[in-house]
Specification:
With about 130 residues, this protein is mainly beta. The protein has helices spanning about 5-10, 15-20, 25-30; strands at about 35-45, 45-55, 65, 80-85, 85-95, 100-105, 105-110, 120-125.
């Protein structure tokens, strides 16, 4: 089993389901999501609409945050990305961290071959490639 499959099988630390187990109140979930780990934009070079991804703790220091699918309007519509708080982001063209990927270290003004094709995102500690 390769690293990506193991990552998915283990539940990608930081997945929404792990951060907010079933039954957690919306208020508790929002209190736990206290730190920005990254942003994605619909346009190149930080233009267009922005979506902020949140994590918990102190960012990506020793922690990975995964977003296995993007919401309506975001799937296949991302053209630039940036990681924050010790995070690099990896953009994948498939859901659940599959397919071609581009890693932003920490900023990508253009996603090149993945421009308009991102379907999932992982934020990893600085220095870590997906």
């Amino acid at each position: 089993m390769d690293e990506a499959e193991r990552f998915i099988e283990d539940g990608a630390p930081g997945d929404y389901e792990q951060l907010y187990p079933a039954g957690a109140s919306a208020r508790a979930a929002s209190a736990a999501a206290a730190i920005m780990v990254g942003k994605i934009w619909t346009g190149a070079n930080r233009t267009g609409t922005v979506l902020i991804h949140w994590g918990s703790g102190s960012g990506c220091t020793g922690v990975t945050f995964g977003f296995p699918s993007l919401g309506s309007g975001w799937n296949n519509n991302v053209r630039s990305a940036e990681g924050f708080n010790s995070c690099w982001s990896s953009q994948y063209d498939g859901t659940n961290y599959t397919g071609t990927k581009v890693t932003c270290t920490p900023y990508c003004g253009s996603l090149g071959v993945l421009a308009g094709k991102t379907s999932s995102v992982v934020y990893r500690p600085v220095g870590t490639f997906g």
